Amino acid sequence: MQWFYRIAYQLGFTPWERASTHDAAMISARFDREESERQPPYGRALDLGCGSGMQAVQLAQRGWQVTGVDLVPKALNAARRRARDAGVDVQLVEGDVTNLQKLGVGSGFQFVLDFGMFHGLDDAQREAMGREVSAVAEPEATLLMIAWSPGSRWPLPRGASAEDIERAFPAWKVIGEDAIGVSALPAALKNVDPRLCRLRHEAKG
Ligand SMILES: C[S@@+](CC[C@H](N)C(=O)[O-])C[C@H]1O[C@@H](n2cnc3c(N)ncnc32)[C@H](O)[C@@H]1O
After folding, report:
1. Is the CB of 100 within 6 Å of ligand 1?
2. pTM score, two decimals?
């Protein structure tokens, strides 16, 4: 999938950004919910596959201390500009989410986000990502993940079920799963059945 994203950003073909803009109210309500269970300052948030930083910047504006990780320099440059224009600090790290500890993202994350990345990884990458995220997240942290339902649609993401996610994240439990709309996606993607899963890190502190 890495080559796919590099080409997509090069071409400016980023339908996920249109979907995020379209779903802004839904995403904002999800962030409200996380914050309602905490006291400000909310602490550290980790945006995995942060792309051009749409969610990372929004979280920083809401008072989170945000780190975003992505493989594609062009996406990170856009995220850097977005953060600067919004007047917020976001730590942006270029690298692979299967290697978070070596990338030096730090630890103590209370809130982890993956909007559209995990579902394109192969099994070995998923397992490594689960291990790395568990190592840097706090006990009781929340992970919000948007993933398409499983299907054969190469070269697009193959999707992931709640069971697939729990298999890669054995220290986490899915505590919520909702279907989200597809109206902002291109016509060819109307059957991807995107879901938003909420997971809780059950590791002991
Ligand atoms: C569908 S896009 C979503 C971007 C962003 N989360 C958003 O909603 O706008 C998936 C992102 O994950 C990144 N990505 C894919 N595989 C990755 C990996 N192994 N490590 C880090 N980033 C990755 C891609 O470069 C891309 O920016």
Report:
1. no
2. 0.96
